[in-house]
Amino acid sequence: MLAAVEASGPEQLAATVRSALESGDLEAYGELLAPDVRWGPPGDDVWGCHNRTEVLAWYAAARGEGMSAEVDEVVAVPGALIVGLRVSRPGGPVDGGSRTRWQVLTVRDGRITDICGFDDRETARAYAGSRP
């Protein structure tokens, strides 16, 4: 599957990421992640996940605790995808309601190499535009 994604470009990768996240298919999402993918705050090499196994374990644990996410949008920009997610968890904000979060997925050679989370779209877009 990954070779086809690489050959078809960022819009196809965006659609594949959306599909994997919406379905909760961790195996499919894992195929999109570089082995040394990082997930954490921008510029923080200590906090967060430091490889594919850790990212997938976080998703599995969150799902096990009842957390879910709906994909609002996935936008391809040069070298990255901006993903808007409506995240819900039992006992979360507003009696288990949802809150919107944004992620910037840095993409190199057709794989996600870095995931950074943001509270709003504008900050995510600014970060996506400032990456090298």
Share of β-strand residues: 25-35%
Task: State the name of the first-level CATH class.
Answer: Alpha Beta
Give the helix/strand class: alpha+beta
Low-confidence stretches: 1-7
Total domains:
1
Describe this structure as you would to a colleague.
The longest helix is centred in the first third of the chain and has 14 residues, at 10-23. Helix content is 42%, strand content 34%. A five-stranded mixed β-sheet has the order 1-5-4-3-2, sandwiched between helices. The chain is α+β, with helices and mostly antiparallel strands. It contains six helices and five strands; from the N terminus they run H-H-H-E-H-E-E-H-E-E-H. It has helices spanning 2-8, 10-23, 26-32, 52-64, 93-96, 121-130, and strands spanning 33-39, 68-77, 80-88, 98-108, 111-118.
Task: Describe the SSE topology.
Elements: H1 2-8, H2 10-23, H3 26-32, E1 33-39, H4 52-64, E2 68-77, E3 80-88, H5 93-96, E4 98-108, E5 111-118, H6 121-130
In short:
With 132 residues, the protein is of the alpha+beta class. The protein is 42% helix and 34% strand. The protein is globular, with a radius of gyration of 14 Å.
Structural descriptors:
132 residues; 42% helix; Nuclear Transport Factor 2, Chain: A; alpha+beta; 34% strand; 6 helices; 5 strands
